[in-house]
Fold this sequence. Notes:
By secondary structure, the protein is mostly helical. It has one domain (111-416). It has helices at residues 2-15, 59-62, 81-85, 106-109, 111-139, 143-163, 174-200, 203-210, 213-223, 231-250, 256-278, 285-324, 326-351, 356-378, 384-416.
Amino acid sequence: MESRILSHTATFGCLSNLRKLPRERGSSCNTTSVSFVSARPIGAVGEGGNLIWGRQLRPALLLESSSLGGKPRETLKPGLVGAAASSSPAEGSDSAGETKVAPLGFIDKYPALVTGFFFFMWYFLNVIFNIINKKIYNYFPYPYFVSVVHLFVGVVYCLVSWAVGLPKRAPMDSNLLKLLIPVAVCHALGHVTSNVSFAAVAVSFTHTIKALEPFFNAAASQFILGQSIPITLWLSLAPVVLGVSMASLTELSFNWTGFISAMISNISFTYRSIYSKKAMTDMDSTNIYAYISIIALFVCIPPAIILEGPQLLKHGFNDAIAKVGLIKFITDLFWVGMFYHLYNQLATNTLERVAPLTHAVGNVLKRVFVIGFSILIFGNKISTQTGVGTAIAIAGVATYSYIKAKMEEEKRQSKAA
């Protein structure tokens, strides 16, 4: 901490002398004024970020990312570019010692526009994934195998990224592996059961059931982690439970396989959150997601072989190829896996750019988009009670997310004060 304070103090001292002639500058500023930013992984759990989900695409944040070769990376902040340049006339200063500040990039000039684009791409990729995923299940109803394909395509993507150094692969040791295995197992179970539900019932109904995830998170925080949950949060969850119950009673595509699978998915992702808090590490989120995807892939392969292997070899592959052709079958599996990986990646890129409250609103709107587009694309008929129940559940999730985000923001501000 002392070294960081001294570094910033020296930087500000040099900034005050920028307009002075070189002979008038003190010896304290003879060296290049570079601000050393403390190395911190983007999205690291230790700072309250997401443990997993995706690659950091923002160049400005990449500069603040972890080091190469164990040494902190020197980062020039935009306002200090001129200070570094002024140390040598050959590097861009004029003869009078005037500072030339580099022009702002598009991301710095229009941050709101860039964030809006990230939100659009997050929703777009999520909707496309759900549409392709459900269309595959209409002619190839093997969710365990499709889940393996999702993870396999993502793992190949991560391996190629490592091979080209974007990002550089972080080393793995036995202690970190022990921490990540429970997270990966819960991730694999939640992912597979979500796909079982998608294959069994309408996409809109699965997402309505998954709106209960905040309820399971609150219950786990209260009764497992021992955290005190305010009564206002519990009250905000009442409409969620009521709305999901109403929607389930009159859902035309209802069956117990789809309902129970979606509920197991909620529980799995809740435990994934619990284990993620225990698996705090300094590794960046991209590498952690890659390792978790690899572990989850190995977890998902045995159930797919045991439960669906014989049917796949007997008639599953042949029936799918006969219905849509070999090329479409392969390309559908590839693209559904790619969109699965990319929408999770864009979700992290989006959520890391915004405040907790915007994060909460964005998550709720994403679910509304997916439910709405799935009804339009697949023409699912829903009863009036199902529609009202879904609306009540989404409103409850929005209320819960708003209250929780406000509480987290107030807590953050009190700590900063």
